[in-house]
Specification:
The chain is of the alpha/beta class. It contains five helices and six strands; from the N terminus they run E-E-H-H-E-E-H-E-H-E-H. Strand 3 and strand 4 form a beta hairpin.
Length: 172
């Protein structure tokens, strides 16, 4: 059976040369703050235009789901936009919704024949998801996703705090 490799890096996700980078998007697929804004700025107008088409067709992207666009001006081939949950104390299915973000993003990557996928830290910024719990969900979901033809998944941490959290969990 095919074995997926997981790599942890501290990098700007918009500069990676991978098949797909995952965007922590909002339901309207309009570039916001954090990684979402950075991806929309780096990708240029093509991403905004493709997101507008998706909005017209299906009204955006529900929390836990994922959609795909080109990567515009970036080196990646595509952007998989997924909408992470806003943290409400863990009483509104946030953990399951976050797990769905990873599963649906990986499924889209697989369906498109992608071998390399890069994930940011989903929902841990303005959405307030506890970073440690989010890291555990991200890692366990990716480790348990199979069968798949994806060769490498990168967890891309922009800050030292998330990097160290992921490193500790991956080392155990």
């Amino acid at each position: 059976m095919h074995k997926m490799t997981i790599k942890l890096i501290r990098e700007d996700i918009t500069k990676l040369e991978v098949d797909a980078i995952v965007n922590a998007a909002n339901t309207q697929l309009i570039g916001g703050g954090g990684v979402d804004g950075a991806i929309h700025r780096a990708g240029g107008p093509a991403i905004d235009e493709e997101c507008a088409v998706i909005r017209e067709k299906q009204g955006g992207c529900p929390t836990g789901e994922a959609v795909i666009t080109s990567a515009g001006n970036m080196k990646a081939k595509a952007v998989i936009h997924t909408v992470g949950p806003v943290w409400h104390g863990g009483k509104q299915g946030e953990e399951e919704l976050l797990r769905s973000c990873y599963v649906n993003s990986l499924r889209l990557a697989d369906e498109n024949g992608f071998k390399t996928v890069a994930f940011p830290n989903i929902s841990t910024g303005i959405y307030g998801f506890p970073k440690n719990l989010a890291a555990e969900i991200a890692i366990s979901t990716v480790q348990n996703f199979y069968p798949t033809e994806i060769a490498t998944v990168f967890f891309v941490c922009f800050d030292e705090e998330n990097y160290l959290l992921y490193q500790r969990i991956l080392d155990n």
